[in-house]
């Protein structure tokens, strides 16, 4: 079977050392085929022709996709394989060969039909209760989860931008999914179409800077979009910010006056903001500036444990996603914090469901909700 060159090159570097057994999915599945090392072994066997694609059974394919693309394996990999890219590109090759899981197929079909992986066909600005500029240098990109599942994040972000005196535009119903769930599940072609639509809309509105409140959107627009632009021959000249970075900048320059947060909090690093994009300190600096008492979880920053939801795992493997979410809640409980703060609508959604399932008193609040309320 043919994989992209990057996957072929990197698969043969693997020393099979198994340092990557830190994988949070492997911890619960406990089968070699669901470990990073096992996945690399499968790729190698397919490349060498030792296993034929037609011999792959359902369980092996399922195990291959039991990966949130969290990147914990990449941090510890002894031969420095860019494992996140390897998993995504290997998935794209498998999908091309027709190996797509039912829930991922549903996401792709819903996204093609409605522009949203949740299949929501409501107007995307249903939550917006004031006017925003039609054209501006700054655009807010809300993304699907903040628009349809954790709308308080979108509402607090636009309120914050207004209060901070930033002139911004928001594409409303002309915004379309950034394509993150499609890129992570190997359905690249659909994501490319979404890239074109968002790109053209930003150009039409005179946008130069894109601000998002979602870690998945941030990763996609800041890291994937320039690569897609290059591949498709588009010029890429946008600056991209996660709203936590913008808040940090405004605090540093003395432009924000915030009240104090007298709480003990722990910070959950979203994989897409932390390991994927190396944004670890800005959200913590904002919390420090608010006077919060931050107590770190045992696994933080580069080693932070995944919430369990990403990479299409929540859609296809609900139980596994919940087990990982409960692990993270247990870790947060040990800190004695009153609140978990994060910077991602998807982490908030999933970890709050895990906290409920565990009967934990802890709840996740997004940084933007805190900042907007204290501004
Ligand atoms: S990216 Fe995360 S879930 Fe996927 S194999 Fe690596 S450690 Fe496991
Ligand atoms: S840590 Fe890297 S080199 Fe070692 S088994 Fe895992 S993927 Fe292979």
Automatic annotation (TrEMBL):
Limits of the 4Fe-4S ferredoxin-type domain: 58-87
Enzyme class: oxidoreductase
GO cellular component: plasma membrane
Keyword Flavoprotein: no
Assigned EC number: 1.8.98.1
SUPFAM superfamilies: alpha-helical ferredoxin
A Pfam family recorded for this sequence: CCG
GO molecular function: 4 iron, 4 sulfur cluster binding; CoB--CoM heterodisulfide reductase activity; metal ion binding
InterPro entries for the chain: 4Fe4S_Fe-S-bd (IPR017896), Cys_rich_dom (IPR004017), HdrC_iron-sulfur_subunit (IPR051460), Helical_ferredxn (IPR009051)
UniProt entry keywords in alphabetical sequence: 4Fe-4S, Iron, Iron-sulfur, Metal-binding, Oxidoreductase
Family assignment from sequence similarity: Belongs to the HdrC family.
UniProt name for this protein: CoB--CoM heterodisulfide reductase
Organism: Ferroglobus placidus (strain DSM 10642 / AEDII12DO)
Taxonomic classification: Archaea, Methanobacteriati, Methanobacteriota, Archaeoglobi, Archaeoglobales
């Amino acid at each position: 079977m043919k994989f992209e060159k990057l996957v072929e090159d990197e698969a043969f570097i693997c020393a099979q050392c198994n340092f990557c057994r830190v994988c949070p999915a492997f911890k619960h599945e406990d089968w070699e085929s669901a470990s990073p090392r096992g996945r690399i072994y499968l790729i190698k066997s397919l490349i060498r022709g030792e296993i034929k694609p037609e011999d792959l059974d359902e369980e092996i394919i399922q195990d291959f996709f039991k990966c949130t693309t969290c990147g914990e394996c990449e941090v510890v990999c002894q031969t420095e394989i860019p494992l996140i890219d390897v998993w995504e590109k290997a998935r794209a090759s498998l999908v091309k060969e027709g190996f797509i899981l039912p829930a991922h197929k549903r996401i792709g079909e819903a996204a093609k039909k409605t522009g949203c992986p949740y299949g929501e066909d409501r107007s995307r600005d249903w939550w917006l209760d004031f006017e925003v500029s039609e054209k501006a240098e700054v655009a807010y990109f809300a993304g699907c989860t903040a628009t349809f599942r954790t709308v308080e994040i979108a509402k607090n972000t636009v309120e914050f931008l207004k209060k901070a005196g930033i002139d911004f535009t928001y594409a409303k119903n002309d915004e379309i999914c950034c394509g993150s769930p499609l890129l992570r599940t190997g359905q690249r072609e659909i994501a490319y179409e979404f890239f074109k639509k968002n790109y053209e809309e930003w150009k039409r509105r005179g946008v130069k800077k894109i601000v998002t409140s979602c870690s998945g959107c941030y990763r996609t627009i800041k890291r994937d979009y320039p690569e897609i632009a290059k591949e498709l021959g588009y010029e890429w000249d946008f600056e991209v910010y996660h709203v936590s970075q913008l808040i940090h900048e405004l605090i540093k320059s003395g432009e924000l006056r915030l009240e104090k947060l007298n709480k003990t909090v722990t910070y959950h690093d979203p994989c897409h903001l932390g390991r994927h994009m190396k944004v670890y300190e800005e959200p913590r600096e904002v919390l420090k500036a608010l006077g919060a008492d931050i107590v770190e979880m045992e696994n933080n920053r580069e080693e932070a444990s995944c919430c369990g939801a990403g990479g299409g795992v929540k859609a296809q493997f609900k139980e596994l996603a919940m087990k990982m979410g409960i692990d993270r809640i247990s870790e947060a409980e040990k800190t004695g914090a009153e609140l978990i703060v994060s910077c991602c609508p998807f982490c908030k959604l999933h970890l709050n469901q895990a906290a409920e399932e565990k009967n934990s008193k802890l709840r996740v609040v997004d940084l933007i909700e805190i900042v907007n309320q204290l501004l």
